[in-house]
């Protein structure tokens, strides 16, 4: 049997058995399922209130006497603030507001309540706003116009293709959300994978099993087997997420609807997502192998690996800038820079159409980095994997790489 | 065809020369002792033989050719400091490492069961490695080293940490391997074990070979013309004996330059002395080791 395959198989199975990997793989769909379930439980338990709420008002301007019934809220007039205060103290009303001349001039309303609130509830504000608007416009425009003014603006945006057909990708906040979540998952996944690889190599190095392995297989077989084994585990992880995403979105949109119905995971995005997951995994697995080989212990290796995982995570900190200016030359450069490419590209995909040449160049650069990294890693592994308890200096590493 | 042929090998690290112009060969059917003080270059030599590290110059051939994947399947290696995958079960560990040596998993399992039974460890086959004692874990490693029936077995300090029973078990196993025509390289610190098991030795110091060859011949070279005698009766003055050294249970007779042990034996017999033991005194390997390396040992 091919020895690379044997190492691949061993690493793949070992990774699948790790508790951290299992949790990471299933926690994402599980949380989404729980969230949908929780929504149903809460929405079933908390029925929309049908109780009529009385809100008082004192009209110091005059003319605000109609439209007092606003859904479940009834607006009760009081002659003075003293009367309104007494009603409030007696809990006859929940709160009251005063329509003073300032309202007519500046739109200013004084609002009084016994409750501690950050802002008045949205339902109360809407009721007051519609009550005031109705009275102000009464007899001036038809009631249908008043109803139209009271309704919030409902915009249905449709994105067209160059040929005028409806585009399969419609943009909007929904499109930002999915790439955002996937870029976050990618970063987490890479960080975990990198940590497993360094831990595994560190253990093999510390207990000298590495010598037995190297007396059985070549350095190249060892590296390729390890990297592909971990990559396959990562691929399985992302497949679980990618397959569960449309199912969960379907479940969410059919049972919750609204915003979730607007979320779409297109095949194009899925393909790019898988491609960058695989490439990102391979790249970071290669880097982690080199770090694992050079580090005197697994713990030091993990610390050193942060130098590489941090730049991979960093684009998430600037996600708002990426989403606002997705085509800025800075982000184009970071789309091509291999370490930041997976996360930056995914975030940009949510906000804009990334030019095909950028994606092609980015993929080529990552592929080249993986190939070059493979050669360098083989040298590093051969040189440093058998150096126990010794931390090489940067100059020493460069010198050894040059000398081969 | 030698099992191992090392020819004019050099290896240096940034700050020191680890191996300098080392040449030796190991034949099938022999136990070869690789000895030397700490830092002498023994482990570096072993690693170069096994292609774990590359020599700066010189050539190493294993079973007549440069070490390739097929040749790697013909060797078994037990490093000095040992470990296995702690969370893996005994049988899974053996099968995985045996399959890396080209063994079919089913055949590996069958052979592993036989070897575990031989070592009285079959009951532990489903245990995780971290549930085993240090000695038991070492036995598993030895099984991993020989399970694929290698032509060349390299053992670095195989007896360290083992109790006398297991030490004897492994010694017998090594002798059995020699009988089967395998080449066994033993890197050891304990000179008595080297003497007991090795046919030939290579003693290295500071990366260079200082003694190499048949153990008996080497010991003969360092012999100082003396015999060990256990006798009954009155010895008195014996012609040809320059010095007598009393030891517990025997006497050491240092002969003058003109007398041979055979002549001495004839003289003793002609005097009617009852001889219980008559042995040509050869210095223990430890003494030779100290003599050769001692003055130069840092």
Give a verbal description of the structure.
- The complex is a heterodimer of chains A (404) and B (298).
- Chain A is mostly helical and 404 residues long.
- Chain A is 67% helix and 6% strand.
- In chain A, a hairpin with a 2-residue loop joins strand 2 (69-70) and strand 3.
- In chain A, helix 7 (173-206) packs antiparallel against helix 11, helix 9 packs antiparallel against helix 10 and helix 10 runs parallel beside helix 15.
- Chain A is elongated and about 95 Å long.
- Chain B contains ten helices and 13 strands.
- In chain B, strand 1 and strand 2 (17-26) form a beta hairpin.
- The radius of gyration of chain B is 23 Å and the shape is globular.
- The two termini of chain B are 37 Å apart.
- The mean pLDDT of chain B is 88.
- At the A-B interface, helix 1 and helix 8 of A face strand 5 and helix 3 of B.
